[in-house]
Design a protein that fits this description.
Length: 253
């Protein structure tokens, strides 16, 4: 089963509108007219409209937001609805990032509400999962991933899952410079695919794309991507520079 790789840039709390546009103009020149991988940019909320505008002539790059609220509207000060994101033209929404889980206290139940709301609106979720160092040291990688997948994806069906991307991001590898070895990534991805198979069937498991995230750089992309169950990358720090992100996209192809 061949799965088209998907490489996403998670800019986190970096780049306002002007810097986002500057990145896109430079990236556009570097990446050329075609790419063997799907490319997604996830700017901060405030930079999404400018990014969308800058991408108006691009067939290659899609847009994601880094979060959303699950309600359509209401008294939720500081939150952004899926409808608002659709109005801008967002294709994907990242949910369940470990920074949302650990810093903002998001749990699998909340992530599940967001996943369900996104599918109801036909916006594709990128659902992040991953264990902490403590959990890995205590041999809990599989139980943590199984719980995050089972509870986070509850109520979704096979059709929903074919529109979902999973991002395996071991928390200890995020922003630390410490990448999971290709074997560690492959083990976690293979297990993730196995659990997806149990929950949604073998066809979904064979077709769903699973990204790796955590200190991905141009130099380690090809080796990570050569693992049979690694279908892409969710890139933080190394996605902030257009040269480095374009190299990652090329090396993933
Ligand atoms: P780094 O690539 O900076 O480790 O961040 C990974 C990440 O959290 C992407 O969502």
């Amino acid at each position: 089963m061949s799965r088209k790789p998907i490489i996403a840039a998670n800019w986190k709390m970096h780049k306002g509108p002007a810097e986002a546009v500057e990145f896109i103009e430079e990236f556009d020149n570097l990446i050329g007219d075609s790419s063997p991988v799907d490319i997604v940019l996830a700017p901060a909320f405030v930079s999404l409209p400018a990014a969308k505008q800058a991408l108006v002539n691009s067939d290659l790059v899609q847009l994601a937001s880094q979060n959303c609220h699950f309600e359509s509207h209401g008294a939720f000060t500081g939150e952004i609805s899926i409808g608002m994101l659709q109005e801008i033209g967002v294709d994907y929404v990242i949910i369940g990032h470990s920074e949302r889980r650990s810093i903002f206290g998001e749990d699998d139940g909340l992530i599940n509400q967001k996943a369900q709301a996104l599918h109801a609106a036909s916006v594709k979720p990128i659902v992040c999962i991953g264990e902490t160092l403590d959990e890995r040291d205590n041999d809990q990688v599989e139980s943590v991933l199984r719980r995050q997948l089972t509870d986070g994806l509850k109520g979704l069906d096979a059709a929903n899952m074919l529109e979902t991307v999973i991002a395996y991001e071991p928390v200890w590898a995020i922003g630390t410079g410490r990448t999971a070895s290709p074997e560690q990534a492959q083990d976690a991805h293979r297990f993730t695919r196995e659990v997806i198979g149990e929950l949604f069937g073998e066809d979904v498991a064979a077709r769903i794309r699973i990204q790796y995230g955590g200190s991905v750089k141009p130099g380690n992309t090809a080796e990570l991507m050569s693992q049979p169950d690694v279908d892409g990358a969710l890139v933080g720090g190394a996605s902030l520079d257009p040269v480095s992100f374009s190299e990652i996209c090329k090396n993933a192809g």
